[in-house]
Amino acid sequence: MRTLKEREEISELAYEILDCLADDHENLEQIEKIMADKDLCYSEAELREELKRLIGASYVRCYEPVGYKLQRVSQPDFRKLSRYWFELTPKGELQRSASRSRS
């Protein structure tokens, strides 16, 4: 297992997305609002691309609303990112913590 110091470097945008997910599930619209509240200017396309990367790296997992519940999506369809809700994985939380401590 890697130590925190050996964790990969992530972009500012990746860190900010992980930080948005630190307390709760969020959807793309909520992530955009949180970023705007922090005066961070990223396009929706940039957010989508970074979310894809974070999902692929197992830092973030996806859920899809089914009725009144969220169902985990094991094979995300990236065309549906605006429909999904996102959550930090334990690996994502470690990466977020390691990145925050380097700042």
How is this structure best described in words?
This protein has helices spanning 12-20, 28-37, 44-56, 90-102; strands at 26-27, 60-66, 69-73, 85-88. It is an alpha+beta fold. It has one domain (10-102): Winged helix-like DNA-binding domain superfamily/Winged helix DNA-binding domain (Arc Repressor Mutant, subunit A, Orthogonal Bundle), CATH 1.10.10.10. The chain has a four-stranded antiparallel beta sheet.
Structural class: alpha+beta
Which regions have little confidence, pLDDT < 50, spanning 5+ residues?
1-6
Number of strands: 4
CATH homologous superfamily classification: Winged helix-like DNA-binding domain superfamily/Winged helix DNA-binding domain
What is the level-2 CATH architecture name? Answer: Orthogonal Bundle
Q: Approximately what portion of the residues adopt beta-strand conformation?
A: 15-25%
Query: What is the helix content?
Result: 40-55%
Work out the count of structural domains. 1
Helix segment tally: 4
Which H/E pattern describes the elements? HEHHEEEH
